[in-house]
Specification:
Blueprint: H1 8-13, H2 17-28, E1 32-38, E2 41-47, E3 53-61, E4 64-70, H3 81-92, E5 98-99, H4 103-107, H5 112-125, H6 130-138, H7 146-149, H8 156-167, H9 184-203, H10 207-224, H11 234-240, H12 243-251, H13 257-275, H14 284-292, H15 300-304, H16 307-310, H17 313-323, H18 327-336, H19 340-349, H20 353-363, H21 367-379, H22 383-393, H23 401-413, H24 417-430, H25 434-444, H26 448-461, H27 465-474, H28 478-485, H29 492-502, H30 507-523, H31 530-546, H32 550-563, H33 568-575
Parallel strand pairs: 1-5
Antiparallel strand pairs: 1-2, 2-3, 3-4
Helix pairs in contact: 2-3, 8-9, 8-10, 9-10, 10-12, 12-14, 12-17, 13-14, 17-18, 18-19, 19-20, 19-21, 21-22, 22-23, 23-24, 24-25, 25-26, 27-28, 27-29, 28-29, 29-30, 30-31
């Protein structure tokens, strides 16, 4: 594969200015280590702030940066600083990257005895890998070969115990009840891994085992909600999403009427149990599959389900047909039901890419569908066609933010600045952010003066006070940013952001505003608010210092201490000032 010659402009197009700047600092300090390149995949470790290092990997193609992943917790727009650092290190010092063989090539010359000896040594020296290997062996392989060699029936009770253990995993930890909700996301991820095992059995042609595993999850995870604080809804969303894989397993089975009726009763019982915890309709798709089978869908299904969230029976049927290799039936059903994206993607899977592209250009009607098709076409190496399809998608209906964010860096990497600008503008018009604003400003160059009024009008109409304040601050429009912070019912985080930025420029306002916020919190006489009040007073102190009024600050502080001398918790906070 011909990889692009990386440049700063390509990397900048995929990262925020802040991430790029920090990435440069990491690169300059030599924070990247253990670097390697395997085909078009770059890997390396970067020093971290919350861990000794983070592992980074970046996949490249002719259009630039195809995908990137870092183990750091960064969850904002663009590449994280560690990924930027890896790319800059590769750009500046490509010889530091050791060339590695593909795993299959590395192990190709080993016979069975050598592989057994190697795995035995690995499991002895790395016991933490043992459980992963044990589960991987039990589950079907992607090729489905062990479906022919596995004679023992899989014990679903093993998975039932696993689910039960996951749900009770917080019991053995020293986790405060008020903090337990923060662990539910990780707990749900573990349940998804069990669900992934069921998918593997489905792919291997063993729907019986897949259904048993999924039912074990439902039957154990439903009552298990009692043991966790699902305030953020992670577990509820997971359970609501089980309807689709259950439906696929059911549709893959050849059951008689008695078996179907029994399964319907089981599902309805679990559905009623989940409803007691506010999880409604999640299993209805599975119930419909068990009731109707491959018959026509009930009209009420479209009214009852949100297909984007919980799936739909036609989608389940298509997945079953695809899994079983019935491509003609798949194409017929997707075309009949107007699922043009599914039809085009299947044509791609069959190697009929030019036909798929022509069909997609004729029938895809939403930006999101165009985005998904363009991504697939890019994966298949049709870069020019992917870019063309993405550009066409910007003119279609529906949300364009994800398409714009995907297409913008690709256009920029091709040197098509105007097209990149239009892609980023489409994203900004739907979801303004400071990072996108700065990207637009950089791409617009001399035309920014003409474009900025439209961008600012969009931002003012978005009612996103935080982003508006951030943009005004970036433009050093201190007084305009203050007006945003003084709006009625604005979040205190906006006020705080503005105060931190304008202290050197408008200290009088910062002092006045910070004291107002602090006095409001102190007057409430709730000790949990005292640290926040103290933080506001700290900002006021900095503003007084900026004005050269240290004595006035000390006088005010002594006054506050005297006023609240009977509040020891508050006094403790004031003493630190």
């Amino acid at each position: 594969m011909s990889l692009p010659k990386l440049s700063e402009s390509i990397i900048r197009a995929a990262a925020t200015p802040q991430s790029f700047e920090r990435g440069e600092e990491y690169d300059d300090s030599g924070a990247i280590s253990n670097t390697a390149i395997q085909d078009n995949l770059l890997t390396g470790d970067c020093e971290g702030t919350q861990a000794p290092f983070y592992h980074v990997q970046v996949e490249l193609d002719e259009a630039g940066i195809r995908s990137a992943h870092c183990t750091c917790p960064y969850d904002y727009a663009g590449l994280c600083k560690h990924t930027v650092a890896l790319l800059l290190t590769y750009m500046h010092h490509p010889r530091q990257f050791a060339e590695r063989q593909a795993p299959a090539d590395l192990l190709a010359d080993l016979d069975r005895d050598d592989l057994v000896a190697l795995m035995t040594r690995l499991l002895r020296e790395k016991p933490e890998v043992y459980d992963w290997v044990a589960v991987a062996i039990a589950a079907p392989t992607a090729s489905g070969k062990n479906k022919k060699t596995r004679h023992k029936q899989v014990d679903a009770e093993v998975y039932r115990r696993q689910v039960r253990g996951i749900l009770h995993s917080l019991d053995a930890r020293s986790v405060r009840a008020s903090e337990a909700y923060g662990y539910v996301g990780g707990l749900t991820d573990q349940l998804r891994q069990v669900q992934d095992t069921a998918h593997k059995f489905l792919d291997a042609g063993d729907p019986e085992t897949a259904l048993a595993i999924l039912m074990a999850i439902v039957e154990e995870a439903g009552p298990g909600i009692e043991y966790v604080d699902d305030s953020d809804g992670y577990l509820g969303d997971f359970l609501n999403g089980l309807g689709q894989p259950l439906a696929e397993a059911i549709l893959s089975l050849d059951m008689n009427a008695v078996e179907r009726e029994k399964l319907v009763r089981q599902l309805e019982k679990q559905s009623a149990s989940l409803a007691d915890y506010g999880i409604e309709d999640g299993l209805d798709l599975a119930i419909q599959a068990a009731t109707a089978g491959w018959g026509e869908e009930r009209e009420s299904a479209e009214e009852k389900y949100d297909a984007q969230v919980f799936g739909d029976l036609t989608g389940a049927k298509l997945n079953v047909l695809k899994r079983q290799g019935h491509t003609d039936e798949y194409l017929a059903l997707s075309k009949k039901t107007g699922r043009h994206l599914d039809y085009a993607l299947m044509l791609c899977a069959l190697g009929r890419v030019p036909e798929a592209i022509a069909y997609a250009e004729k029938y895809l009607a939403t930006a999101d569908d165009a985005h998904k098709m363009a991504e697939r076409v890019r994966e298949l190496g049709y870069i020019a066609q992917a870019i063309s399809m993405g550009a066409r998608g910007l003119k279609l209906s529906g949300a364009k933010i994800h398409l714009g964010e995907w297409l913008g860096p690709i256009e920029a990497a091709q040197g098509r600045t105007e097209q990149a600008l239009q892609a980023w503008l489409a994203a900004f018009l739907e979801h303004p952010t400071l990072a996108t604003y700065e990207t637009l400003k950089r791409l617009a160059g001399k035309t920014w003066r003409d474009l900025q009024p439209r961008v600012m009008e969009t931002l003012r109409q978005s009612h996103d006070a935080m982003t508006l304040a951030q943009v005004l601050l970036s433009e050093q429009e201190w007084d305009e940013a203050i007006k945003v912070a003084e709006r009625r019912n604005v979040w205190y985080t906006v006020i705080e952001t503005v105060a931190d930025a304008v202290t050197p420029h408008r200290p009088e306002w910062v002092a006045r505003t910070s004291i107002k916020q602090a006095e409001r919190l102190m007057a409430e006489a709730q000790s949990k608010h005292y640290p926040i009040a103290a933080n506001w007073l700290k900002k006021a102190k900095q503003a007084y210092v900026q004005m050269g009024q240290t004595h006035e600050w000390q006088a005010y502080l002594e006054k506050v201490k005297e006023q609240y001398k009977r509040r020891p918790a508050l006094q403790a906070q004031l003493q630190r000032l």
